[in-house]
Design goal:
Oligomer: single chain
Largest sheet: 6 strands, antiparallel
Strand content: 15-25%
Structural class: alpha+beta
Strand order of the largest sheet: 3-4-8-7-6-5
């Protein structure tokens, strides 16, 4: 239970700061949407490119695009994001994976101009990308926690099995010690009985010898009579 609580707490703490890996969004000029444009860039940890693309496509559906293309870049045509623009916009996203990290680059096309840091919709765009990165990273950590818990449960079963075996061994030792003690007492009693038996044999032999003498005496008297 303590281990599970610890893992859960670690997951919550890791939502924004992940073992030294900070989820953040930078705005920089990137090659995307058929040219170089201002874009929102973040890194997603504990995930993979396929899951990130799948998750991003699912997120785009919230903005009612006419269609979502998923070739090299993911393109949402005519999406509706009122807090960025009163008009429909195109959203471009590109991903690349390296060493267990996925870089996500997102550009918001207003119809020729792109959302940059000075645009009124920059905060919404940044929050969209940041929220997605945190969600995907948290999901990846959650999956790792569940896998770690499975391994922990398996190891705990091994420990429980060894503990039970240890208990059985102690029980056997106690039983055998009891049998040894009982056998020791039986040996001591047998040795005492043996000593008594030998004494009784000696006494019985003396009685037999005395009786033999008595028989011989009676037999001698019989001879005298004849």
């Amino acid at each position: 239970m303590k281990t599970k609580l610890f893992l859960t707490a670690a997951l919550l703490v890791s939502a924004a700061t992940l073992f030294g890996q900070h989820v953040k969004v930078d705005i920089s000029n990137q090659s995307i949407g058929g040219g170089r444009h201002e874009a929102f860039v973040t890194t997603i940890y504990h995930s993979n490119e396929a899951d990130v693309k799948k998750g991003w496509k699912a997120l785009l559906k919230k903005y009612n695009p006419e269609k979502v293309k998923g070739g090299g870049e993911i393109i949402a045509d005519n999406a509706t994001v009122p807090s960025i623009s009163s008009n429909s916009i195109d959203i471009y996203a590109a991903t690349s994976e390296s060493a267990g990290e996925v870089e996500l680059v997102v550009a918001f096309d207003l119809g020729g101009a792109y959302v940059d840091g000075s645009h009124s919709g920059a905060k919404t765009a940044e929050e969209m990308v940041y929220g997605f990165a945190v969600k995907m990273t948290s999901a990846g950590i959650d999956a790792e926690v569940k896998e770690a818990e499975k391994v922990l449960a398996a190891k705990q079963k091994e420990v429980d099995k060894l503990v039970k075996a240890n208990d059985r061994l102690h029980q056997n030792i106690d039983r055998w010690n009891g049998e040894i003690e009982s056998a020791t007492q039986s040996i001591k009693q047998a040795e005492s009985d043996l000593e008594t038996n030998e004494k009784e044999q000696d006494a019985a032999k003396k009685v037999v010898e005395e009786q033999e003498k008595a028989v011989q005496a009676v037999a001698a008297k019989l001879k005298e009579v004849k």
